[in-house]
Amino acid sequence: MAQGAERITPYAGDTRRKGEQVREMFDSIAPAYDFMNRAMTLGIDRLWRRRVVKMVARAKAGDILDIASGTGDLAIALGRAIPQARVTGVDLSEGMIAIGRDKVARAGLDARVTLGVADCLSLPFADASFDAVTVAFGVRNFQDLLAGYREMQRVLRPGGLLVVLELSTPESKYVRPFYNFYTGHVIPAAGRLVSHDSNAYRYLPDSIRAVAQGHDMCELIARAGFAKPSFRTLTFGVATIYSATK
Fold it and tell me: What whole-number distance in Å separates Cα of residue 246 and Cα of residue 222?
């Protein structure tokens, strides 16, 4: 297993807790975040989210919690695709949530998609409140990943579904050199130009390399109390979907 994403922080030499640094980073890059997401993944992130939406739709979830919701892309996609669902999205960053709320309003989903600020390590919801919990590109930013998974398990109803979409490191010796160059050089350079926060897009590849992946991530999910954790890699291994049940 990598050294642990909890040890990777956005601002080198900053003594604040990771959660505080992550909040500041996302507040800083919020205006550029959606553009950078599309550019970094060449738009493929939308296809990855659709996979998550299909999995949740098959589970016929009525109450869905989207953690690390950011600007609301996954919450909105869930709301559009599952008409009977009520979607709650939470994120540490006020800046990201403000943009997300505007997007929800423009999508006409205010009645069923609600976004708010909350800490994933201390969710403001009662036990067994949701039928499904989703996280897209967020778990590597957690200050304590196991604690985060335990909170997700707490708020899920018995039989509820967990689906996590996260960036990952390709294992192929043919793909990895291109991936390393792209994430190590192209993305940080683009991030400096577009978001003017070079720390954020240096942090990105570092946190991807450090976060638990594959079987290691499944083991962590199982330790949090989930049953039958499994994973599937996407697009040559640059992203992975994890799922489990309570």
Answer: 10
